Model the fold of this input.
Amino acid sequence: MTSRTVKRDGWKRLTLGLVAGVLVLGAGTTAAAFTDFARVNLGTGIAGSGLGNPNRFDIAVRDSTGVLRDADTPETAVVLPLSAGTVFSESKPVEFDVSVTNRKPGVNGNLTVSLYDPDPQSGDLFGTLLFTVYLDGAATPAIANATAQQVNQAGLTFQDVAPGEQRAVRVSAVLAPNSGAQASGKSTQLGVLTNGESK
Amino acid sequence: MRTQRRGRVRLLLATGSLVAAGTLITAASFTDSADVDVALDGSRNTFDIVAAGKADPSWLPTPADWDQANPRGLRIILTGDNSGYTMAPGSVLDLRIAAKNNSPRLSSLIGLRILDPLPRGAEKNPQTGTYLELFDQLVFTVSDGGKVLLDHVPAGQLTAITWPDPLRAGEYKLLDVRVELPDTVDNRWQMAATDIQFNFEAVNP
Done:
């Protein structure tokens, strides 16, 4: 009896040993499963340059001598001579031409033209002016006989201006009817602000 | 009588042991074997994942498109002149990427991670003061045959995509990817750029 018991214990040990061995082998096999990977890159081949805007979006105004100026603060605004007229009147417009450029190389963008008064004063002449704005030399105005506020609300925009493209704005201003008497002896400046927004 | 009988018993027992010996000899005389050959054919258990992709939202992979993409990644050409793709605020890039289980027999579990191969953190251009890295500003949408897996997920919150069902030998997964730069990104990221890496990871289940 004793010897048989001992024999059984031996079998158990053997069986346990086998099971443990199989388990370990099994776990080992799973961990060593076949793996592979595939990488897809979006890029130009030069590290870190695939997507982005390598060129600055930068618009500029051409000054009277033909030089492009950033003019991105009121202090650096380009002062332009009048194209026509010398004094404000109710009938004879004062005109000036602005040329804005989306600098090259850059980013496509929309350029929105607005008018502002660079030197606001109380009872300013600016408020009594009526503006007619022509875009890109068009014969028909984009907006006619409108106050500065109405011009700005109209949102005159050059859509999708490509880098290197140059666009023209002609602003023509007259005094509102029957305001000539109040305008006597007053002066104002006219500002054209072009806001660029990249696309 | 008793003594004689006992002697016979002994003789019989002795003979018995002889018989037993004879049996042993018999057992040792006839031998046989049956071999079972299990052919472990390793020639068709290769495990191979290939990839393809194009910056075209209606592209379908052709046999010529598949590339090992490992260790050298497959590069998707983004523009006609092989320059960078302009990403200004509001820009969108639609593309398709695909991974194929090119193994002859084995199926594969597939996962996808979207990575920045060259993270530059908050590093700035010393001249302009603008950030160099654009990846962290991007927003990703990934869908698999109309099923959206990542829905406008900002780069910082990207998680790995895994598919529960294995890709069988010869099958491929075609994914629609949209990369967007939100309108809210401002001038601080002018002239910033990035690469994007789509990393398909495959394991044989």
Q: What stands out?
A: The first strand of chain B starts at residue 49 and ends at 54. The mean pLDDT of chain B is 85. Chain B has one domain: 49-203. Chain B touches chain A through 60 residues (CB under 8 Å).
